[in-house]
Amino acid sequence: MTDFMPIGGRGSSLIRRVQGVAGQVLMRQELELRFGYGKILPWVRRIYDDDGEALLAVAGPQAVMLRADALPHAASDYSHVGEFMVEAGQTVDMQLHAFSSHSVPPPAIDVGVALQATSNYWTYWSSNYLRPGNYDAEVERSLLVLRALTHEGTGGIVAAPTTSLPEQFGGERNWDYRYCWLRDAALTLEAMMTHGFQQEALLWRNWLLRAVAGDPHDLQIMYGVAGERELPERVLDHLPGYEGSAPVRVGNGAVTQYQGDVIGEVMVALAKLRNHGVHEDHFSWPLQRNMLLFVENNINRKDHGIWEMRGEKRDFTHSRVMMWAAMDCGVRAVQEHGLDGPAGRWAEIRDGLRTEILERGFNSEINSFTQTYGRTEVDASLLVLPQVGFLAYDDERILGTVSRLERDLLDGAGLLMRYRTEVCLDGLEPGEHPFLACSFWLVGQYARTGRVAEAQMLMDRLVGFGNDLGLFSEEYDTSGKRMAGNYPQAFSHLALIRAADALNRYGQ
C-alpha cells in the first residue's frame, strides 16, 4: 500500500494505491469525514461525471471528493464503508481531493503518472544533498522533512503540521504548531545552505524578509505560512484531546510574546548566508538594520525566553546572548562586508551586553551560567552560547555550565530536559519529557570538546528514537518509550542536522 501527495496538482490531494503481491487479500475501507475540527457533519452524495462515479462531501466553503476503483457504497452511522478483494497483480487506486465547494470538482488523476512524477521530484531534490559522512540517511531524511513542512507557494515553514499532541499525556501542555516561527525559519535557512540547497535558503530568506517587513516595533516571533499576523488562540471544548490531554488549542497565544532571542537567530542565519557569498539587496540589508533597531529599542526589556514561558517575564541569559549576537552580526556586516550602518553604536551596545551577561548571567559560586539573572537554575538553551561565538566551546565557564546541566537536567535515560519545570515556574503544572533538540545540542558540545565517544553514544541513542520513517517528535517519553509533543517537529530535525555536522567535523 502506497500513500502519497502528488506534486503539482490542483488543490490538495491524498492518493492511496493498493497493489496485490501474492494470493488474495480482503480489504475493508471506511470513510468518515468531518469539518471544523470534527464539529461539522458534511452533506455527502454520490455524483457522476466524465471520470465516473465519486463521493462528494460538502460543508459550507469546503468540499472533499473521493474517487476510487472501489468506492465504499454502504452508509453507516454517518460514514461510508466497503470491502474489496485484491488479487496478485491487481491495482486498486483511491483519490481524496480537497477543494473549495464553489469550484468545479478536480478531475481524476492518472495515479501511475502522478506517483512516478512525485517520486522523481523528491529523488531529484534530495540528489542535491551534500553528504557529510556519517548519519547521511538521517540528515537527508531531516532535510526532506524540512522541505515537506514548507508551504509550496510562500516558502513559510511550519514548526509541525499538528496541533495539541501533548508534551505531557493527560496534561495541558498542548500547543498549535502549524505556524512559522522566525527561529525555525532562520535555522532551516542555515541547514539548507550548509548542505547544498542554496535556492531553498534564498526561498526561506525571502519569506523571512516579507514576514518581518514593516515597522520594527511590530515584529512578532511567529507568523502564518503567508506571513499572517493574527493567530489568536482558542480552545476546542468539543474535543477530548489525545489520551484526554485537554485543552485542544487552535492558534497560539505565544504570538503576542516578546522573545528577545529571535532577532539574534535571524541575524546569525543571514550573516552565514552572507558569508557564503549571497549578496544583500536593497530590501534585505535595510530590513536587517530595522531588526537591529528593534533590538536596540528593547535592550532593557525582560522577555518570555526561547521556551515561551507563560509565567513572569525575566532576564533570560540565552535571550541576552542572542541580542549580543544580533549586534555582533551588524558590526561584522559593516566591518567585513562594507555594508552601511552605525557600527560604532552597535559595537558599544554589543560590548555592554557582553559585560552585563558575564556579570549577571554567570554564577561563580556554581561555576555556571544560569537560566535567568540572579538565580541558580540552569537551562539547556545555555548550550547555544558557544554556538553563536559568545565564548569558546572549551571555555571553562562553558564547561562548568555543561557540568551543571548534566547534574541538574539529565534524566535517567541520559537525555537532557529543557529546565526543571517543578522549579522554574512557566505558568503551567510541572511535568514534561526530554526535549530532543536539547540532547542533540549536547551531542554537538561533546563532539567539539573531545568527548567524542560520549557524543557518538548519545547520538546513536537519539537516532534510535525516530520511527520507522526517520521522523522525530518534539519530545520523547523514555519511560513509556514513545514520542511526545507535536510531530514531525522541525526543531528536532534541525538539531539532528547540526549534531551530525558536528560529529562529522570534530568526531573523526
Describe the structure.
With 508 residues, this protein is of the alpha+beta class. It has 2 domains: 2-102, no CATH class; 134-506, Alpha/alpha barrel (Glycosyltransferase). It contains 12 helices and 17 strands. The strands form 6 sheets. Strands 1-2-9-6-5-4 form a 6-stranded antiparallel beta sheet, with helices on one face. Helix 3 packs antiparallel against helix 4, helix 3 (182-194) runs parallel beside helix 5 (262-275) and helix 10 packs antiparallel against helix 11 (452-463). The two termini are 41 Å apart.
- What is the H-and-E element order? EEEEEEEEEHHEHHEEEHHHHEEHHHEEH
Number of strands: 17
Q: What is the CATH architecture assignment of the largest domain?
A: Alpha/alpha barrel
Work out the helicity level. Answer: 25-40%
Strand arrangement across the biggest beta sheet = 1-2-9-6-5-4
- CATH class categorisation of the largest domain: Mainly Alpha
Number of domain units: 2
Give me the Rg, rounded: 25 Å
Low-confidence stretches: none
Total of DSSP H or I helical runs spanning 4+ residues: 12
Sheet having the most strands: 6 strands, antiparallel
User: How much strand content do the residues show?
Assistant: 15-25%
